[in-house]
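Quick start: what a row looks like.
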Amino acid sequence: MRSAEDDLTARARIRNAALELFGAEGVSRVSLRAVAERAGVSHALVLHHFATKEGLRQACDDYVVSLVRGGPEADLGDTAGLAAMLEAGAAVRRYLARAFLDGTPQAAALFDEIVASTGQWLEQGVREGWAQPSEDPQARAAMYVTYLLAPLAFGEHLARVVGAADVHDMETLLRFSRAGIEIFTHGVFADERALNAWDAVRQERRSR
């Protein structure tokens, strides 16, 4: 008899296989039988856990959003948690890249959910004192997410500039993600002249 623990393990294995295949080939090109073969389970077991390909795709979306929301695998205050998220990241990033390239309504909903979750996380940081307040929290959350997802669109160029074969390679990821965290933590500009110039342009346009 199959135990509940076996079912959970099989479900995660199927989901991970789907993340890899959906990311590499796109949801429309991958069959449930192909996912079952990659996961090393029967087609019937995939149907048992997810019923349809849409159900499996939704499970992949839910998993990605859970990482953004700061689940156990995404605890940025814990070294082991951060390492686990980075290790899981290649399949997740490829899945996101394919989803956004496909431009489906599901991809749009996923992006909106990630922005909303990120906004909540940043506002929590403001309350707890580890994030700066923003004049426009919604726009900041959207820009933060867009920055994080930019390598998905510019991966080929980013890999070339940093001299890497694959932008999803762990060493490459560590290199550019460290640079990104440095920007968010310490900033780039040493004074406010750029921000003041932008505010002056906005004020001028508003006074016309």
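That is the whole record. Residues 4-206 form a domain with the Tetracycline Repressor; domain 2 fold (CATH 1.10.357.10). The mean pLDDT is 82.
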